[in-house]
Design goal:
10 helices, single chain, elongated, about 210 residues, mainly alpha
Length: about 210
């Protein structure tokens, strides 16, 4: 991980050169570059800095890549949180969240890398879960759950569903998001998916409500 004391602030508010490396990795991932083939030189050239600079902050290319993915993850979640604050009703928040996911489909590819990294399921284990500092995993969980929990608690207060168990709410919320992300992918790859975006959006919402009622 970045040299020096590791805190959540290091990847939320990185130094300028580190931020440029993070953005370079994100660009490469969104361009569908095979993550296992990304080299430190690819990253630093895209970032416009010298290769040696990377090792002033990181010990390996794996550390740069996983921290870059977490950086984008945290940045995007903060964007979602600010968007949610401008919307009053639960159903409207869910619909706007679906729209955001649809409009940011390139980011979904990075998000799937995050899940694989956090579970240690990369083919070459770019950064196995057991090697990630606890502060990093706890920090990202906090970012994710704080957004989802706030939305789901509002749904409960409005009477959209009756489930009070937080874990079940989180599972249902995550399942709903994956359902929509996969539907975007299937629709793009298979024009005979059989359900347009508006229908898929409402189906995912109703599935969430039924699973928690």
């Amino acid at each position: 991980m970045p040299k020096g004391e590791l805190t959540i602030d290091i990847f939320c508010n990185p130094p300028e050169k580190v931020r440029r490396m993070y953005e370079a990795v994100s660009d490469l991932v969104r361009e569908r570059t095979n993550i296992s083939t990304i080299k430190v030189q690819d990253i630093t050239e895209r970032a416009g800095i010298g290769k040696g600079t990377a090792y002033e902050y990181f010990s390996s290319r794996e550390e740069i890549i996983i921290m870059a993915l977490f950086y984008e993850y945290g940045t995007k979640l903060d964007e979602v949180r600010k968007m949610m604050e401008t919307i009053s009703r639960f159903h409207d928040k869910i619909n706007h969240l679906f729209d955001w996911l649809y409009e940011n489909q390139d980011y979904n590819h990075s998000f799937m890398h995050i899940i694989r990294a956090a579970t240690g399921s990369f083919g070459e284990k770019v950064c196995p879960k057991e090697k990630m500092p606890r502060v990093l995993l706890d920090g990202m969980n906090q970012f994710l759950f704080s957004v989802g929990d706030e939305i789901m608690e509002q749904g409960y207060r409005e009477g959209a569903f009756t489930e009070t168990d937080v874990t079940k709410r989180r599972l249902a919320f995550a399942a709903m998001l994956f359902q929509m992300i996969l539907s975007f992918h299937d629709k793009k790859e298979n024009p005979h998916f059989g359900m347009d975006y508006q229908e898929a959006r409402e189906f995912a919402y109703q599935t969430l409500i039924k699973s928690l009622s």
